[in-house]
Amino acid sequence: MDDASRALVKHKVKTAQEIAAIIGAPPRKKKVIMCHGTFDLVHPGHIRHLLYAKSKGDLLIASLTADAHIAKANFRPFVPQELRAFNLAALEVVDYVVIDPDPTPIVNIGIIKPDYFAKGYEYTKEGLHPRTAEEKLAVEAYGGELIFTPGDIIYSSSRLIETEPPAIATEKLLALLEGEGLTTADIRSALDKLRGIKVHIIGDTIIDSYTHCAMIGGMTKTPTMSVRFDRREDFVGGAGIVAKHVAAAGAEVTFSTVLGEDKLAEFALEDLKHAGIQCTPIIDRTRPTTNKNAIVTGGYNLLKVDTLDNRAISERIQGILAEQIRDTPADIVVFSDFRHGMFNRDTIPNLIAAIPNNVFRVADSQVASRWGNILEFKGFDLITPNEREARFALGDQDSVVRPLGLELYRQAACKILILKLGERGLMTFRSVPKKDEDVRAFFTLDSFADHVVDAVGSGDALLAYAALSMFAGGNEVIASVLGSLSAAVECERHGNIPVRPKDVLDKLDRYERLMHYQ
User: Fold this and answer.
1) How is residue 345 annotated by DSSP?
2) 223: cis peptide before it, omega within 30°?
3) Which is it for strands 278-283 and 426-430: parallel, antiparallel or unpaired?
4) Alpha-helix runs per DSSP H in 119-222
5) Which uninterrupted H or E stretch holds 472?
6) Is the torsion defined by CA of 367, 256, 475, 484 positive or negative?
7) Torsion angle, CA of 19/22/23/26, rounded to 10 degrees?
8) Which of 209, 211, 214 lies closest to 228, judged by CA?
9) In degrees, to the nearest 5, what angle opens at C-alpha 251 toward C-alphas 247 and 253?
């Protein structure tokens, strides 16, 4: 929202104390009516409710639940509280808007003391809900009155959002930056600070292969699909692509990994050398280099053939890795865990213990074909699991995302948790000192991907740019934005291609133009 647009509505958004001072205490010449709700998407049911309420009073106050207290549906609120407040303030019928910092409106009812408190007609069905009864007592305590607005059609914000989520990534980004006192110039400046950071990455190398074929047909006597080989593409993946993203961003990268003694290991080492990465591989002659080969026909993955050995690494290899971690100069240490032998419940404590003091510690543990648990990396500075990995770690299939992420953040005892939500974007959790009551303990960003070609590997790009940015600038919002932008870039490409700062800037330029209606 530009400054001129914001000026048209900002004066309506007040605290409960500010509103109470403006309207005075009852009895008043002008009757005050107050409505309360989430208002995640302002729909026709909301408009009808607000119009009817205004018809019963002179001043209409719209109160909305703060983000931190919305947990009745998954991925809610869809619209952050600042945008929800501006949406209501833009309505002519609304005189004032208040973002309620409490779970219920009881405290604000006592502060504002509206003459009427309006509820939707649906709250009269099947008796008075206990929460509505509590609101009724609070209103009647000073002589106010609870009224119900009529309505024969019940609209659901959650149902509307699930049907087709509105595309408001630009608006959410702008609201978040404004709320944090940041601009896109700060994001650009943060990108310039990534160069020269020393990063030590430890993790499983995977060679991701794509074998492109053309469909011939099926056999007549057996259910066998017949395809014609066209070409094969090999990409360094797993922790290797994390290293390549970090190097592409301008950092100085050392990569510790375990490889087999084979042609794919030679390919990986040559590719990593070309990317400017100092690789310190440990060759294990008893296992192959991990290879995941997708058979692609007509743009679809027909089959995937994995060549791997998931046995735990030997004590000898574990000792070499620990020594490399202790002796490699680094500002950041990244554990990139794909559960192909390097990380398990026995090796993780020893490898963590080898990390030097005062190093920024980052971890990502995959739950795909293998089971990794992000909670094995407790006390790290940054962790970046996806929703499935969070649910696996907590054994929780049922909680909605925000309480799920909050519980993982608590149990992981990390400084920053970026919870990856796929096409839904991300949610970041951070600690907030009690003195900073206005700072968000969590915030969301929608995905910036315009057209998804291959989502595999986007989380690796996010990990790379978010970790570098957090170390360089210490700002969770900028780190999350850079991570999300880089993930979007990677989503729009086929295969594991390192994301460069220029790619991130190009993506940022597009959204900045949208912010300014260009």
Assistant:
1) T
2) no
3) unpaired
4) 130-140, 157-163, 169-179, 184-191
5) helix 458-473
6) negative
7) 90
8) 214
9) 65
What the block records as the tokens of 340 is: 């192909």
Dist. CA 176–CA 505, nearest whole Å: 19
Q: What is the pTM of this model?
A: 0.79
Residues 6+ apart with CB under 8 A from 252: 196, 197, 198, 199, 278
Count of other CB atoms within 10 angstroms of residue 166: 12
Which tens digit of pLDDT belongs to each residue from 182-240? 999 999 999 999 999 999 999 999 999 999 999 887 666 777 888 899 999 999 999 99
Structure tokens at 111: 């502060």
CA dist 119 to 97, 132, 282, Å?
16, 8, 67
SS3 211: strand
C-alpha distances in angstroms, 224 versus 218, 298, 324? 6, 17, 48
Euclidean distance between CA atoms 114 and 103, whole angstroms: 19
Helices (H) and strands (E) in the chain, counts: 18, 18
CA nearest 38: which of 54, 52, 23, 49?
49
Contact in structure between 297 and 214 (CB atoms under 8 Å): yes
Residue type, 109: I
C-alpha–C-alpha distance, residues 232 and 273, integer Å? 22
Placement of tokens 């469909």 in the chain: 215
Rounded to whole angstroms, the Cα distance separating 384 from 468 reads: 13
What distance in Å separates the CA atoms of residue 399 and residue 387, rounded to the nearest whole number?
11
The candidate with the shortest Cα–Cα distance to 168, out of 70, 67, 80, 62, is 80
Any idea what DSSP says for residue 68?
G
The pLDDT > 70 percentage for the chain reads 90
Q: Residues for the chain: how many in total?
A: 518
Read off the pLDDT of residues 317-366 as tens digits, 9 standing for 90 and up: 999 999 999 999 999 999 999 989 899 989 999 999 999 999 999 999 88
